[in-house]
Amino acid sequence: MAFAEHLERVVGEVVGEFPADAGIYAVTFRIDSTDQDPRYPYVSVGYATEADAAKSARTASDAWEARWSHAYFPETGLEGVRVVGCDPEGAEAHRREAERRGLWYEDDEEPYGRDELLVEWFYEVCVGVARRLHGSGRIVEALGRPVPVILYDMFDLDAMFRLTADANPAELVVEFMAEDTGADLTVGSGESPRA
User: Fold this and answer.
1) pLDDT band at residue 87 using 50, 70 and 90 as cut-offs
2) Angle CA(106)–CA(109)–CA(111) in degrees, nearest 5?
3) In 3D, which of 105, 91, 165 has the Cα closest to residue 131?
4) pLDDT value at position 83?
5) What CA–CA distances, in Å, run from 125 to 46, 72, 182?
6) Which CA distances in Å does 176 have to 25, 91, 123, 179, 182?
7) Residues facing 47 on adjacent strands
8) Mean of the pLDDT values across residues 136-154?
9) In the chain, what are the helix, strand and coil shares in percent, each to the nearest 5?
C-alpha cells in the first residue's frame, strides 16, 4: 500500500471516531517528524471545539488567536488524538516510496537537499489527505457538517496558511485565512495559487 493511501485510510478512521456532538469547528493536522528527521514524518490528527475557543478567548489577544492559533488549541488539537505515519505500516510504506523516489538517505550520507524534498512531499501527502476527507464526504459524515482541516508545522509556521488554503474549499477557511496578510482568498478547493 502506498504511503498516502495508508495515511488516508487511518486518518479517515480517526476522524470517524471524533465525537460528532462535541461542537468541533476544525480538524487539526500537526505535521511533525521523529527527532526532526524528515525521513520519519508523522501527522497528529486532532480537533478543536467551540468550547475550547470560548475558553481560550479569556486569555487570547483577539478572537482569531483564540480560535485559530495553534498556541491556543486544546490538547486534542495540539497533540491530536492519534499519530499517523510513524506506525510500523506507515513508516515502512514511507521508506519504500522515499527510496523509489530517490529521496532516502542513510545517517552517514549528506542529504543534498533530499531532506527538504522529503518535507515538501509529506506536505503534499497531508494536503491530499485533507482534500480527500472533504471530497469523500468523510468529515460531513463524521461531524454532520463541513469543517476546515488546519495544517501546521511547529517548525515552519509560515507554511500553515499555504497548506491550509491548499487543503480546503475556500469558503471553509475565509475566517482562518483573514490573518494571513499575503493570502489570496480565492485560492482553495485544492487549487494551487493562480499565477
Assistant:
1) very high
2) 90
3) 165
4) 97
5) 17, 26, 24
6) 11, 32, 19, 6, 13
7) 27
8) 96
9) 50, 15, 40
In the block, residue with C-alpha cell 493536522: 29
Q: Averaged over 174-188, what is the pLDDT?
A: 66
pLDDT over 80 (residue 101): yes
Beta-sheet strands, E only, within 65-159: 82-84, 149-153
pLDDT category at 182 given cuts 50, 70, 90 is: low
**CB neighbourhood size of 37 (10 A):** 11
Higher-confidence residue of 185 and 136: namely: 136
Residue 136 phi/psi, 5-degree rounding, is -80, -15
Residues recorded for the chain? 195
What distance in Å separates the CA atoms of residue 105 and residue 122, rounded to the nearest whole number? 16
What distance in Å separates the CA atoms of residue 113 and residue 110, rounded to the nearest whole number? 9
- Three cell numbers written together for 58: 479569556
φ, ψ of residue 135 to 5 degrees: the values are -60, -35
